[in-house]
Amino acid sequence: MDTTAVVESPVNFLNHRHTVASWLLTKDHKRIGILYFVFVSFAFMLGGIFAALIRMELTTPAGDLLSADVYNRMFTMHGITMIFFVLIPAVPAVLGNFVLPLMIGAKDVAFPRLNLLSWYIFVTGFFFTLAAMILGGVDTGWTFYTPYSTQGSESYVLITGIGIFITGFSSILTGLNFIVTVHRMRAPGMTWFRLPLFIWAIYATSLVQVLGTPVVAITIAMLAMERTLHLGIFDPRLGGDPVLFQHLFWFYSHPAVYIMILPAMGVISETIACFSRKNVFGYSFVAFSSLAIAVFGFLVWAHHLFVAGISPYSALIFSFLSFAVAIPSAVKTFNWTATLYKGAIWWKSPMIFSFGFLGLFLIGGLTGLFLASLGLDIHLTDTYFVVAHFHYIMVGGGIMGYFAGLHFWWPKATGRMYNDTAAKFAALLIFVGFNLTFGPQFILGYLGMPRRYHVYPPEFQVLNVLSSAGASILAVGYALPAFYFVASLFNGEKAGANPWKATGLEWTTQSPPLPDNFPETPVVTEGAYAYSKREMKVA
Amino acid sequence: MPNGVVATHDEHGHGGHHHPALQHHFESLEQQLEASTLGMWLFLVTEVMFFGGMICAYMLYRIWYPVAWAEGSNELNIVMGGTNTAVLIVSSLTMALAVRSAQTGNRKATMGFLVVTMLLGLTFLVIKFFEYKEKFELHHVPGPYFHYEGPLSGEVQIFFSLYFALTGVHALHMIIGFCLLSVILWMAYRDRFSPEWYTPIELAGLYWHFVDIVWIFLFPLLYLVDRSHHIV
Q1: Is the model's pLDDT at A100 over the cut of 60?
Q2: CA nearest to B41 within chain A
Q3: Which residue of A has its CA nearest to B50?
Q4: What ipTM was reported for this prediction?
Q5: What are the CA-CA distances from residue A75 to residues A15, A48, A58, A140, A478 (Å)?
Q6: Rg (chain A; Cα; Å)
Q7: What CATH number has the domain bearing residue B171?
Q8: What is the CATH number of the domain that holds A166?
Q9: What is the pLDDT of residues A384-412, one digit of tens each?
Q10: Which of A141, A502, B144, B154 is the most buried (most CB within 10 A)?
């Protein structure tokens, strides 16, 4: 693999235009990815601040820092910010936008204007939600369960709901754009089974976005109509069913977990292959397991309702299906591990983040099986066990994958190398901090500590202090990249077209890429992971 | 490695003339049309899911409260609803004829059919307005002023909640469709379409037909639950 073959042009997508308008009106998928990156990073910081306040409150058993009401608002806004404005857009909208057209050899996504519109919709939704937070926040929990959200709560449910409704359309349109792009914009020779596994993962994610998000949009709309126009769709006083709201909400919100984790899995397929210099073991199994997760993901939502009074027979089926969804996830994990076997492991920071992903996702996935078991779930519902489980999946898995991807493609986007040692240190801090934060919460939950309370019995204090201590380590780990990434822009080494000696079309063009990605449309003649170990040793 | 070898651009050589509607990131007009059409169909899938959420609620309550559903349904004005159904079916025909005229390059007919389609859409909305007005007067709008005699008042209110949610969201789609067709009409007026490129009007047509089909489902679901005992 010779980087010398790439003729460097002084013009790239970052410097060919400079004005603010050229950014705000850009139709370039790479610039739009960066626009998302700015807002997602801001939201990540904001959600982190909410989390910090929660963890500070929980260092003592008494409610001495935040009142019960403020605490309710904190965990609600933490959840809303992190889920709708960080985890869902992180990998697809930031990394997906940046690399998807590059990876398939296209000049852009299929609908560049729609892509820009999606970003504006996202920002509008974000500002609505932010406005609600500034006005005083919302206290329903991110799940907006009725009838509290329609009748009881006096917080800013409506504005937040509008914000999330709007943001949903950004997610729908991005998913739509990506599906059409993958179908219609592939370069000559880029057959489906030569696609990088990241593309398969994004494709499966987009299916979930397109099919699931409209349902939560209309559900939130019905909730808003009930709150303002006094429609009575979920109102128990009229004979309406609040559990119907839960069904409709989780029909989207459970698959939404796969919107967060699937693209991160896609990133891991790329990094594991690149940094062990091997083809991904069982490529087609990993590809189809992405689709299987998307399909099964739609059939498990009622496991959130095991204690909501649903029929024991349907609970049995949903329990079984929830176990079944573990199979494609396990297929992926085994295949990544098999890829490592006899690989020439290259200890670079994206690989360290990927190892972190494997560890955390494994714990998150296995504890999910505990919760899918009907009997055990009755004991664990609404305890910290659940909190720990979904943080391991969505944050441990999702954010680790996102960080692995950021570190992997940062040199491609900016043309600069960051300090790899600092990055490895950050990965280590995150891994240790994460386990220290959420590990004790499994025990707390098993011992019966319920979630969403600002006070707890004194015997839980030791584990809670451990968790809060872990959170501060985690915060440092998450903040660290901001420093070395910014530093890399000023004094980072030039990356060249292909610093990781990776396969894949995005590495065949210069870094940062040309405004139109490639000098000429590339032609693909081989699979996505044509690595050879010998090359690595020469390098 | 062989990846990254450049394609020779013989067929699409930069010297060749491009259609003015061809955006630079597509290789050919055909690729652009395929992408746009697939995008529109996918969008319609999201719309099915969007209405699906409400129809799911409708199904649940109809199974739970069949009597209230029959009572509520019989309160609806079947003459207005039926007329609107006919109006929309005719508008689908004129929309299809507008697309057909664009395909054959008949600009005048395209514009004519578009205008008729828009007028029919407007007729639908006007009739819907009077129907809503009647509901207000009868206190059939859910909320503190809702009034319905009988033991099933609460359940009937749920029926009317879903009636307003479903028809309201549908009417919103009609309004969006009307705006969409205004743009298309303006494009037709500026002579943008030709037999080789008429994608926007075709996509707008798909949207229009979809909104019509939604109504074709809503009409029996809402108006025709149990009319056998009460003709009109």
Answers
A1: yes
A2: A176
A3: A214
A4: 0.92
A5: 41, 11, 12, 9, 19
A6: 23
A7: 1.20.120.80
A8: 1.20.210.10
A9: 999 999 999 999 999 999 999 999 999 99
A10: A502
